[in-house]
Amino acid sequence: TVVFVTWDEGIADNHVATIVAAPSVPSGTVSATSFDHYSLLRTTEYLLGLPFLDNAAKATSMVTAFHL
Q: Is 22 within 8 Å of 2 (Cβ atoms)?
């Protein structure tokens, strides 16, 4: 089980905060990797065992960065 909490508005530098909560995520984990909404879609599809849709197939996965 994993819970993603993400804000829909970034600030001027286009950073959007996202919290990833799961038993496998070490406390205080921070990633320097850039992710976008396709990354979140790809990660969700992967975790659910679904095929990747369109641009999600090319997106950076969040699985490794957050130990999912």
A: yes
